[in-house]
Amino acid sequence: MIAIRSLRKDDDFSDLISLSRQFFGEYETHHRDFFKIDHLEDEQIIAYFASFCNRDTRQALVALDGERIVAYITVYVHEQVSYWQVKRLGEISGLMVQPEYRKQGIAGRLLAAAKSFFAAQGVRYFAVYTAVANRAALEFYAQHGLVPLYTTMLGEIDAPPGPARDG
Predict the structure, then answer these.
(1) Do residues 75 and 93 make contact, with C-beta atoms less than 8 angstroms apart?
(2) Which of 23, 79, 129, 163 suits a disulfide with 96, CB 3.0-4.6 Å?
(3) What is the spatial distance between Cα 100 and Cα 97, in angstroms, rounded to a whole number?
């Protein structure tokens, strides 16, 4: 039976390192350059997940098969600028399920737990950002009632990489 709960500082973060590397590996396929990881140390991944432990406005929720973390969702609440009517917005910053555990409803359970976290924080709206090429994620979120809000456009400058030069 898969259990869903908040990440604890005494959990085995090695599972999260593996999941994160898989997450980034999959994400890199969604654009030839933009999502490529330059250099990522295990300590950076550990620090990232540790920053979600014991916090009021951010949480990492994990799915466990016994003691093994097989999936996660990271969520947080942030204050928007004062002129927006919606003052607080929930955000999902990552959702990953081990490939062999997919299609078992784990991602849906994690999303439901994230929504419960947001509700407990008094948040009405939440957002998630994903690549337009990530069709599986787009279908998953649509099946769970999320709708497109806005589009980010990416341009490319026809210049060799390197520091900017004054004309």
Answers:
(1) yes
(2) 23
(3) 8
